Amino acid sequence: MRILMAMLAFGFWSTQVFATDPVMTGPAKVVVNGVGEIVVGPDFAILTLGVTHEANTAVKAMKSVSADMTAIMKTLQKESIAERDIQTARVQVQLNNNRSQFRASNQVKVRVRDLPKLGRILGQTIADGANQVGGWSSGVRFDVSDREQYKAATRKIAVQNAMSKAKDLAEAAGASIGNIIEIKEGSGGGGLRVSGAARIGLCTDVPVAEGEVTIRSRVEMVFELLQ
User: pTM score, two decimals?
Assistant: First the structure.
């Protein structure tokens, strides 16, 4: 997998400089936030597929759902999706909104490791009877397998970013930074970023853009401010 871009983000995080004050105790200090990002191409996708049917009895509704889900499972097997990459997320039977019929549903999450197959799998499973792809959230989510490898790199970038900002602030105030008083990691995650350069699968009538996955780390650092 190739790293598409590594970047430092400046100017979006709060910075505080505390000068020496007779009322305050302890040394003068500077508090900065740093962020590091690496953008990479995904190497797998999580596909959420569901089947929902209604009937005048719960048994009939679930029977229709099971028939379609069986066809979907056969397609996934044909596409060499391993059993460990298929997980049932929800099986449900309930009365519909007007309480006139029963609604049955079955939803599975599928990890697709061979991304060029994704568009074809999506199209074929819809043809098999999948009438739900995700819900209010995205039905297709891209990610990378070894996220921690990239997190280690983004932490280093974030620390370098914070140290550079602290030095710039201290120099602007006619001072310099001393020892590190405190360092802590903030929350940070990765997300899907679809761009015009993204590879698109056109194996079927369902095009899929892989986009990019952003791995992000944030740190807060506190330094002594030397006058």
Answer: 0.70
How many CB atoms are closer than 10 A to CB 122?
Answer: 26
CA-CA distances (angstroms) from residue 178 to 30, 64, 116, 224, 225? 10, 70, 52, 5, 6
pLDDT digits (tens, 9 = 90+) for 55-76: 999 999 999 999 999 999 999 9
Rounded Cα gap, residues 44 and 115, in angstroms: 6
Q: CA-CA distances (angstroms) from residue 30 to 24, 121, 144?
A: 14, 54, 36
Q: Which of 19, 28, 30 lies closest to 165 in space, CA to CA?
A: 30
Q: Evaluate whether 143 touches 44 at the Cβ level (below 8 Å).
A: yes
Beta bridge partners of 38: 6, 215
User: 117 near 202, Cβ under 8 Å?
Assistant: no
Which stretches of the chain are assigned E, i.e. beta strand? 3-9, 16-18, 29-40, 44-55, 86-95, 102-112, 132-133, 140-143, 176-186, 191-193, 200-201, 208-209, 212-226
